[in-house]
Write a structure and sequence with these properties.
Layout: H1 10-22, H2 30-49, H3 54-59
Helix pairs in contact: 1-2
Length: about 60
Amino acid sequence: MKQEKKTLSYYRLRLEVYLKDYHPQLLGDETFIRERSEAAAKTYEEAFLQDNPIGIAESM
């Protein structure tokens, strides 16, 4: 039996919790979840690298 490995991501977990609470019909959309969580992580990283404080980077 082959299992797909998932990388744990803060942004993925937060998105999945949000979807579970407010948009459960989207929980099965792996592409949507992957793309949105990767975009959020990238936005945070870019904001942090531009010397924004962590609180500001998290809110972007």
